[in-house]
Amino acid sequence: MFARRVMVVGTGYVGLTTGACLASLGHEVVCADIDEAKVERLRRGVVDIVEPGLAELVAEQTSAGRLSFVVGAGAALDGFEDGRRAEVLFLCVPTPMGAGGVADLRAVESVIEEVGAALAPGTVVVNKSTVPVGTAARTAELLERTDVAVVSNPEFLREGSAVKDFLGPDRIVVGSDNQDAAERVAALYARLGAPTVLTDAASAELMKYAANCFLAMKLSYVNAMAELCERVGADIGDVTEGIGYDRRIGQAFLSPGPGWGGSCLPKDTHALLQVADSADFEFRLLRATIDTNTRQRQRIVDKVRLAVTGKRTGSLSRVRLALLGLTFKAGTDDLRDSPALAIAALLRQAGAELVGFDPAFVEGKDGASAPTEIDGVPLAGDAVSAAQGAEAVLVLTEWPMFRTLDWAQIAAAVKRPIVVDTRNIVDPATLRRAGLTAVGLGRRGQG
Ligand code: UGA
């Protein structure tokens, strides 16, 4: 195997996973971040991100001498043994959604400004962050160097399984107008034996949006189908199982829910819509995907209203509700664009009194005490306490522990025995046995 000297700028979720995993493939990796305190913690092996296996991998690769951390991109240039410079520079800095749904590229620009001129001839600059089509070309322009190539190498990691996804990818995508540079980047991953798509930069950049928007569309479709199931008396679990056996559709990503969220799908759907708008293309399917998702949150509120008041227009004023799960999905402590929080805001607007419980926030981080509220939702230390006096219990995140809660104890704590399970994860028979009425999404006989 050919080990390379790799510099990774940005030690967020993508950068840290990339750095640690590339080191585990045998490369010499120096990771840079502008946050001094964070670098200091990483040097001590403290990883702030909740990601299975990541802290262990960071510790293992650091002590093996293949992974190190420095403050600032400039320092990373000189961070390699024997004073040699990086052969590959991975840009893993944030590209948040700016005004009008356009990704904000200031962080990419500032790294180029800082180290662009000092890169060794022949270095390959790799864009790993999700970026608008044309960013590789823009990066090359900013670099103003003909001896440094720019490559787009989007990541397809899921939060909660990032290390596993990195080391066992469905595919590697490398796009560049410089074939030799693209092949050098692809070679970094050779040991993984994954299918590799070598393409031009614009196609690689678009591919990331295309994948996330397709996934979002799949989910909006399932959520709409669940609503239709309710209206015609069908069952969404059976329908998705049946269609999922068709290999062209697949079983994955077919669970209905309170709407898709997180830091990626919402950002990327809006960004692709923006790309389409600028290209004078009316992407109606994508707009409908987003609208269906926005509507899904209101649909959950309507369901709660009907379940609690018996009327579509009933009042939720001063109605106490327990919210189980606040993160955007299970296995993470990430609250960004969480459907649970969007639903909480709508419920609060409707006058409801909320108490939340989420297993990700039972303990505080870094020696601090556990939070007492999130986004204005007061937190209880366990599900039973959250359910105390509630007129309905809402399951909003698919944490596996919710399946096996002591539902009889919850039934004894609530004021009214209603469970609105927006993830369809709790066995309705278990709820019934505990004396609770289950309301799911598109489930037979559960309106
Ligand atoms: C997503 C993509 O799945 C990754 O491939 C991609 O690399 C990543 O974005 C990114 O762009 O960085 P992630 O945001 O971690 O990953 O979350 P997902 O697991 O995709 O879930 C997204 C949302 O869909 C969550 O709110 C989740 O609860 C929801 N979901 C997912 C469902 O409602 N039903 C499902 O069957 C699956």
Automatic annotation (TrEMBL):
InterPro entries: 6-PGluconate_DH-like_C_sf (IPR008927), NAD(P)-bd_dom_sf (IPR036291), UDP-Glc/GDP-Man (IPR017476), UDP-Glc/GDP-Man_DH_C (IPR014027), UDP-Glc/GDP-Man_DH_C_sf (IPR036220), UDP-Glc/GDP-Man_DH_dimer (IPR014026), UDP-Glc/GDP-Man_DH_N (IPR001732), UDPglc_DH_bac (IPR028357). The keyword Oxidoreductase applies. Coiled coil: none annotated. Residues 322-428 form the UDP-glucose/GDP-mannose dehydrogenase C-terminal domain. It catalyses: UDP-alpha-D-glucose + 2 NAD(+) + H2O = UDP-alpha-D-glucuronate + 2 NADH + 3 H(+). Signal peptide: none annotated. Keywords: NAD, Oxidoreductase. It is an enzyme of class 1 (oxidoreductase). GO terms for molecular function: oxidoreductase activity. This is UDP-glucose 6-dehydrogenase. It comes from Actinomycetospora aurantiaca. The lineage of its organism: Bacteria, Bacillati, Actinomycetota, Actinomycetes, Pseudonocardiales.
